[in-house]
Design a protein that fits this description.
By secondary structure, the chain is mainly α. The chain has 20 helices and two strands.
Length: 462
């Protein structure tokens, strides 16, 4: 694997922490508490799930911190998997991320931003074009066009330099934290709720047992925590990565755990469990309780600010995966290009924008993305196992930071991830199988790529 890195180290500790927290705090915190209380029944159980999922996330981040400090290269998990298991594992990860997972996530986040922008501009929901080929209904709305345009806009910003992107990330992460802090302070300070709500409960969906329901609620919480791994993808652009990577991963994860716990406490103080379980817009309902009719606008702005920062962070991080793969000869060489003036992986950013924009325009990204959640956590587990693998295979590798609590902490993460994957497979078998199939399509693609390279002969940089 090449050690080349022509990218600028433009992310300091604040920018790096903002990438962690900013990509973790998205739209889920405004939505999933209702789903979680439906599964487990009571506010205190929901709070326990948030803390449990947060600790699980922190354990994962501690393992990633060791790998990020030891291998501070662009590409993150792709680099770790490549080093630990070989090029096929790295290729499968990059294949899944580039064609479905990361690009689908970018499309989903951009569309979420446009949906809430539609609160102020309802005409965005209008259908601009519709056709019915072979009995299928294909339509294009202002929301889809707007989502694709937003992806292109932020991708262009990312081409202009990592420092600019890092500054935007820091500003919008601070803004979203301000929105959530205001919701918590006003919610708990105005006295318009009741602590008696924490003694109430609703009938849970525990037909298959409380352990299964707890697992499903944890999946919802982990969706809200997802994104903690994004910093590893831009490790090659972090200043003093041996010091700042571990600090940013740990500080960012702890910050989000605290923010989520306080926000959910405010939700259940303002709303009863039945009210939370009966709505898909818990944040809007809580805001209306304290701000009246203006609450809807307040939450709409909050979600837009939150999703904007998450989208920027996802574009910044995701583009480094195809860049790193191309640098190692596992993707088209053009994707390894670095802009001569801005020192950013401009071609990889543009390629990612094209795929994500196409998914946003197609309207099919959500159907694809829900099917790769299983493979996402499979990769998280494999990367963490890589901590053990690399300690055995590469004991000489410099490790400025060693995982706190090794081997217990990463071991617990792998075991719990395995239990979560098992529960998800049995409870969401169709989506899990589809996720594995989508990932497996990368196997023939890998060998076809190797065959094509052999026939084409050695190329510059391969």
């Amino acid at each position: 694997m090449s050690g080349r890195n022509d990218l600028v180290k433009g992310l300091g500790i604040y920018g790096a922490t903002s990438v962690v927290a900013g990509t973790m705090i998205g739209t889920a915190i405004f939505v999933v508490p209702g789903i979680m209380v439906q599964h487990v029944g009571s506010p205190w159980r929901v709070m326990f799930v948030w803390i449990f999922a947060g600790i699980l996330t922190l354990f994962g981040a501690l393992g990633y911190a060791e790998l990020g400090a030891a291998l501070p290269e662009a590409g993150g998990e792709y680099v770790y998997l490549h080093r630990a298991y070989g090029p096929l594992a790295g290729f499968l990860y990059g294949w899944t991320q580039f064609f479905v997972a990361k690009t689908g996530s970018i499309a989903a986040i951009a569309t979420g931003f446009m949906i809430y922008l539609g609160f102020f501009f309802p005409r965005l929901n209008n259908v601009l074009y519709e056709t019915h080929p072979a009995g299928l209904t294909l339509r294009l709305t202002g929301l889809q066009l707007g989502a694709a345009a937003l992806i292109l806009l932020l991708s262009a910003l990312n081409v202009l330099g990592v420092r600019r992107s890092g500054t935007v990330q820091t500003i919008f992460t601070a803004s979203k934290l301000g929105v959530l802090a205001l919701l918590v302070v006003l919610g708990l300070g105005l006295g318009r709720g009741s602590f008696g709500h924490f003694q109430m409960a609703v009938h849970s969906r525990a037909e298959t047992g409380m352990i299964s329901a707890f697992g499903l609620a944890t999946v919802s919480a982990l969706w809200a925590y997802d994104g903690w791994n994004n910093l590893s993808m831009v490790a090659g652009e972090v200043e003093a990565p041996q010091r700042n990577m571990p600090r940013a991963l740990i500080l960012g994860s702890l910050l989000v755990i605290v923010v989520y716990a306080l926000t959910n406490f405010a939700y259940f103080y303002l709303l009863s469990p039945a009210e939370v379980a009966g709505t898909g817009t818990v944040a809007a309902d809580a805001a209306r309780r304290i701000l009246g009719a203006a609450g809807g606008a307040f939450v709409a702005v909050g979600v837009m600010v939150s999703s904007f920062a998450t989208l920027n962070g996802s574009i910044l991080a995701g583009s480094r995966i195809p860049f790193a793969q191309a640098r190692d000869g596992l993707f088209p060489q053009a994707l390894a290009g670095v802009h001569p003036r801005f020192h950013t992986p401009a071609v990889a950013i543009a390629a990612q924008a094209v795929v994500a924009g196409a998914l946003a325009l197609s309207g099919q990204y959500e159907a694809l993305f829900t099917k790769v959640i299983f493979s996402e956590w499979l990769f998280y587990a494999l990367v963490t196992v890589g901590v053990f693998v690399l300690r055995r295979r590469r004991p000489d590798l410099p490790r400025p930071y060693r995982t706190w609590g090794f081997p217990l902490v990463p071991g617990v993460f792998v075991i719990l991830a395995g239990l979560l994957l098992t529960n998800t497979f049995f409870e969401r078998r169709s989506d899990s199988l589809w996720g594995l199939v989508l990932m497996a399509t990368g196997v023939p693609a890998y060998y076809l790529w190797k065959l094509w390279r052999r026939k084409k002969g050695p190329q510059p940089g391969w």
